[in-house]
């Protein structure tokens, strides 16, 4: 059985990656990796669906036990992805999508170099701020912190190559989802993911 794709999507907070991912799920089937975090749930979020919400002590125990493939600290909170959330899914031939931060993307690349990594951009910094404030869930100071972190991420991406394979701009949700879907369709057709088709055909097999 062919292994599934490991798909990483990262973006500054407020870019709309969650909404884009929901649109993407209407186009293709994949498992959405549920990360662990020490931050408190926002209104409407559900434990085990949006995140596994844990204490810092519980999070550190997972790290110390070698259970986490990647971890990062963002806005003072810990985030991480477990090995089980990735390896169990792709072994079944299913695709798994990880919605993680840039540092997490770097760590995934080190451990799973075959991962398909996509960075989602807002159309402008002013639009990013508008979307953050439009959520109405955070204080002005928290919004400022997220904007400052977005600037740091963008500066890192400008200076660093080799982590993210594709850049997509979220001008409109349906367009961004369609572009990511096209990327994943092409990735499925890569030679290294197809096996030895010439030999199979020459040996009289059907493709």
Describe what this molecule looks like in 3D.
With 207 residues, the chain is α/β, with parallel strands linked by helices. The strands form two sheets. A five-stranded parallel β-sheet has the order 2-7-1-8-9, with helices on both faces. A four-stranded mixed β-sheet has the order 4-3-6-5. Helix 1 crosses helix 7 and helix 5 packs antiparallel against helix 6. It has a single domain, classed as P-loop containing nucleotide triphosphate hydrolases (Rossmann fold, 3-Layer(aba) Sandwich), CATH 3.40.50.
- Percentage of β-strand residues: 15-25%
Oligomer: single chain
Structural class: alpha/beta
Terminal CA distance = 15 Å
The helix content, as a percent range, equals 40-55%
Strands side by side in the biggest sheet = 2-7-1-8-9
**CATH superfamily assignment?**
P-loop containing nucleotide triphosphate hydrolases
Instruction: Tell me the name of the CATH class.
Output: Alpha Beta
Q: Spans with pLDDT under 50 lasting ≥5 residues?
A: none
Mean pLDDT: 90
Q: Total number of β-strand segments? A: 9
Radius of gyration, CA atoms, in whole angstroms: 18 Å
Give me the CATH architecture, please. 3-Layer(aba) Sandwich
Discrete helix count:
9
Q: Main sheet, how many strands, which sense, barrel? A: 5 strands, parallel
Please tag this protein with its features.
45% helix, Rossmann fold, 9 helices, five-stranded parallel sheet, 207 residues, globular, alpha/beta, 18% strand
In short:
With 207 residues, this protein is an alpha/beta fold. It has 9 helices and 9 strands.
């Amino acid at each position: 059985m062919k292994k599934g794709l490991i798909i990483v999507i990262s973006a500054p907070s407020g870019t709309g990656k969650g909404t884009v991912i929901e649109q993407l799920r209407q186009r293709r089937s994949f498992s959405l990796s549920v990360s662990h975090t020490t931050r408190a749930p926002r209104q409407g979020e559900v434990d085990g669906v949006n995140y596994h919400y844990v204490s810092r002590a519980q999070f550190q125990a997972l790290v110390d036990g070698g259970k986490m493939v990647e971890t990062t600290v963002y806005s003072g909170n810990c985030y991480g992805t477990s090995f089980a959330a990735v390896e169990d899914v792709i072994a079944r031939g299913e695709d798994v999508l990880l919605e993680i931060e840039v540092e997490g993307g770097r760590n995934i690349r080190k451990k799973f170099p075959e991962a398909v990594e996509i960075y989602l951009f807002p159309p402008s910094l002013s639009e990013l701020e508008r979307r953050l404030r439009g959520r109405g869930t955070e204080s002005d100071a928290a919004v400022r912190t997220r904007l400052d972190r977005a600037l740091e991420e963008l500066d890192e991406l400008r200076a660093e190559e080799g982590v993210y394979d594709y850049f997509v701009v979220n001008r409109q949700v349906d367009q961004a989802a369609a572009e990511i879907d096209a990327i994943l369709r092409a990735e499925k057709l890569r030679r290294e993911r197809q096996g030895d088709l010439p030999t199979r055909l020459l040996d009289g097999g059907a493709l």
